[in-house]
Specification:
By secondary structure, the protein is α+β, with helices and mostly antiparallel strands. It is built from 25 helices and seven strands.
């Protein structure tokens, strides 16, 4: 998202919902932080927290946000002021000298200093992201902390333990040097009011930025409700949905006197639910079957017509038009992307290329099942979860993929899919579970899925994890577009 002169619009709200669903960041960049931009950023945060059912945090976090944005703006102004007065921020004597006049001088001529900050490229960035079961809020500015600033922050964070209320802090402490010390203490007190500790607040520097980070755990009641809704959802998935047109095409091929094995294999392997059905039957004879080619050998092409038929009670045939979001096509694209990324970038995992394709195909199975559930299934599910005190809002969070990995694992087990694949679902749906340089399969599937969403204009390039882009030598949006275009032509 970019700077806006307007209040939050419906397009912004939809972008926020999409970012929550995909666990991608929302980022706002400003250089001068005018009042309307502060309000806009606050609205972004409030809407994000509301969509994640964390409204109880909003009032307290609004103060924190306002304080942190102001501090970042002030830090940028300080860099311009010190430079113009030939003062060295890293020199103790210069620092103390400059701070004696900084506040009064800049307040009396703030428009000038804000203009100079923008010319110098000094920015303030707000970022918010849902990461598995917590929300990360970051305020960044490209003015790296000097030693005196680091010491002051450490001192104020340590002293925050001595205060129990904001009034207590106001009465006992008022920092006249910069006015920021008191703000830090009150931020910690505000976080304590929503059940957090000083451990949820961090200030650190990277190669380019000073970052203030707040980590917010999700509401435990909501989290528990989502997990219960997930379990109830799995109980309704007793049939495997298949698209009518795809089934008709496959049955026609299977009814021919001479079977075109290559075409039949292609029709099954590009269809996520055909593949599930194949693996389900193959697992009866070999529980660890984790490849489509192996499953076809186990069952035999001549026996496939007994499985892929409208008369099979395991199937629920649905009209192709019911796949409103193109979930079958998306599953195929993600699988194809993952397969080719693994081959072309020599990504080493414990799985071969065919297994990686299969894992990509099954990656978002739960979303497909939720979207194609029958009215009766939805009615049973809603009745069941409401009996357990779960609200419809909790259930809707399933679409935000909070627990899809758990659901996919449980459904896979219920359908008899290989344990090697079902257990894997628990650790690949969120890249934050993969340590840096560790679970490369998680990174591979993440990028394949993000490429799909980027291609569909459901997200922007900056929202894709930078570290993972570097792993795959993607250093620009142009490079990403080039890779996607090549894969789409091949697909």
């Amino acid at each position: 998202m970019t700077n806006s002169e307007n209040e939050l619009e419906s397009v912004d709200i939809e972008k926020i919902r999409q970012a929550i669903k995909l666990h991608t960041p929302i980022e706002i960049t400003t250089y001068t932080l005018p009042r309307n931009m502060e309000i806009y950023i606050q609205q972004i945060m409030d809407t994000f927290l509301t969509e994640c059912h964390q409204t109880h945090m909003i009032g307290f976090l609004n103060f924190c946000l306002d304080e942190l944005l102001t501090n970042s703006k002030k830090a940028n102004t300080k860099r311009i002021y010190f430079k113009q007065h030939n003062l060295d921020l890293n020199d103790t004597e210069d620092y103390e000298k400059g701070m004696k006049t900084f506040k009064e001088d800049t307040l009396n001529n703030i428009d000038y200093y804000l203009t100079e900050q923008k010319k110098a490229g000094l920015y303030i960035k707000f970022e918010i992201q849902l990461i598995e079961d917590f929300i990360k809020i970051e305020i960044k500015n490209n003015a790296l902390l000097c030693p005196m600033e680091e010491d002051r922050i450490r001192e104020k964070l340590k002293s925050a333990e001595n205060y129990s209320t904001e009034r207590d802090a106001l009465e006992r402490l008022l920092d006249q040097t910069e006015g920021a010390g008191l703000g830090i203490i009150i931020i910690i007190l505000m976080l304590q009011k929503i059940g957090l500790t000083i451990e949820n607040y961090k200030v650190f520097t990277t190669d380019t930025d000073t970052v203030t980070q707040i980590i917010l755990p999700l509401n435990t009641e909501v989290k528990t409700g989502i997990e219960t809704a997930c379990l109830e959802c799995v109980k309704t998935q007793t049939e495997i949905p298949v698209l009518e047109e795809a089934l008709e095409e496959l049955t026609q091929e299977l009814s021919k006197p001479v079977l075109n094995k290559k075409k039949i294999t292609a029709l099954i392997s590009k269809d996520v639910t055909f593949t599930c059905l194949l693996l389900k039957h193959a697992s009866v004879k070999e529980s660890n079957c984790s490849k489509i080619s192996t499953a076809l050998e186990i069952i035999g092409f001549e026996n496939l017509k007994k499985i892929y038929t409208k008369n099979n009670a395991e199937l629920r045939v649905i009209k192709t038009a019911e796949d409103k979001n193109g979930r079958w096509e998306q599953a195929h694209s993600i699988a194809f992307y993952a397969y080719n990324l693994a081959k072309n970038f020599n990504i080493e995992t414990d799985f071969d290329d065919e297994e990686i394709y299969l894992i990509g195909l099954l990656h978002n199975l739960e979303n497909l099942l939720l979207e194609t559930a029958t009215p009766e299934q939805k009615k049973i599910l809603m009745s069941s979860i409401q009996e357990k005190g779960i609200t419809e809002k909790d259930f809707n969070l399933l679409h935000y993929e909070h627990c899809c990995s758990a659901a996919e694992c449980l459904i896979g087990k219920a359908w008899g899919l290989p344990k090697k694949l079902t257990d894997l679902a628990l650790c690949i749906n969120h890249i934050e579970k993969a340590s840096e340089g560790g679970n490369k399969l998680a990174y591979l599937l993440y990028l394949a899925e993000m490429m799909q969403h980027y291609k569909n204009r459901e997200m922007e390039f900056y929202q894709i994890d930078e570290y993972i882009c570097k792993m795959f030598e993607i250093d620009s949006e142009e490079k990403l577009n080039l890779i996607i275009n090549r894969l789409e032509k091949a697909l």
